[in-house]
Amino acid sequence: MIGPSSDVAGIVAHLETLRSEENVAGMARFGIATGTALGISNPDLQKIARLVKRDHGRALDLWRTGVREARMLAIYTADPAALTPAQARGWSEDFASWEIVDTAADLFTETPFWQELIAEFARDEREFVRRTAFAMIAGAAVHRKTEPDETFITYLPLIEAHSADPRNFVKKAVNWALRNIGKRSRICHRPAFALSEKLAASVDKTARWIGKDAVRELSSEKVLARLKG
């Protein structure tokens, strides 16, 4: 039985007993990198994370195993208050799957240096590192509720600057960030919608897709009704 005192070897051994090749195949169909995957679902990993509890040092060691499930557990059990910029950058060096990126992005946005990481990761030419920046913006727009709206409005030029990046995992994250800013509040909606319309009229194919998709959601009755409420 695993618990708070479990070490990395014990946790990985437990994960191995839960291996499912059928689930691995299913993950691959969703574009998840499965080279080191054991096929354990994220809800099941979250249950394990609750059993072993938060332990930042152990989380760093779990990450070093390279096993997909161990890395997800590393993210779930790391301490954002203890995570350093160097550690976050170190993890980003290994990013090779949208699932890991998006989960880590939520952890990174809980740190006091989250904006520093966004700026740095957006400049990075690697597809999954750049995705991290925009996944962080998308997540922070939802979860950092006490952050001033202006913080997110200032990210709109960054979104525009990278709206022509045609790589699948970047363009989807840029679009996601734009939509989430627009849905955050009435204050954010107006400039985000204006940028969406601008991109929708772009001659660039990727920017046009990002803009049209964002216009579709940000002009929907559901979103407008929620913002009015």
Sum this structure up briefly.
By secondary structure, this protein is mostly helical. The chain is built from 15 helices and no strands.
Provide tags for this entry.
mainly alpha; 229 residues
This entry's quaternary arrangement is single chain
Number of strands: 0
Could you list the spans in which at least 5 consecutive residues all have pLDDT below 50?
none
SS strand fraction? under 5%
Q: Secondary-structure element sequence?
A: HHHHHHHHHHHHHHH
Shape: elongated
Distance between the termini: 48 Å
Please estimate the helix content.
55-70%
What's the total helix number?
15
Q: What is the average of the pLDDT values?
A: 97
Radius of gyration: 19 Å
Structural class: mainly alpha
**Main sheet?**
none
What does this structure look like?
The structure is a single chain. The protein is mostly helical. The protein contains 15 helices and no strands. The chain has helices at residues 8-17, 21-29, 42-52, 56-64, 68-77, 85-92, 98-108, 114-123, 127-143, 149-153, 156-161, 168-184, 186-200, 205-218, 221-228.
